[in-house]
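name: query_chain
kind: protein
chains: 1
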Amino acid sequence: MNLTLIEDKLFVVSERLGLAVYDFDFDLHFECTHPYLIEGQRPCIMRVGAIANYAQEYEEKMEMGLQLINSPDQYVLASELEAWYPLVTELTPRTVVYEALPTVLEIESNFDWPVFLKGSRQTSKHNPDLAVIYKTVLTMKEQFSFIKTMQYCTGKNQSYASSFPSQK
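structure:
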């Protein structure tokens, strides 16, 4: 963990991910310090990639004197589809949240093809085998003579499916 105070205003907790588009060396572009002690509560952002347990990170940073700019509730609202989707249902294709990767029959009971299938989180740090539903596509091809679908899945927890324009 790299702790940087930028321009004596904002703390950044960062971790190099090995991605040029994400990794940013604040010291090259701003006046930065790396203090050992933090007085009071100071605002902070994290640039560490996917965060497995944000509420725990939030509490740990608070104990250090760092107040992450998003509360755990705000983090969930911004990050988890089931939290923010109800706010945009009228503007987007219908979406269903599944607790586990759905079967073809489950998908077909809710949607017409084509279907877009995605996991609950997508980052470059995830195992590529989790990123594409390769095994599911093979299973579908075995069950059906053709498939008109674009599928994509990441994450280990929930999966989401969306379909448009004709929806069941």
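note: The chain has two domains: 2-78, 88-163.
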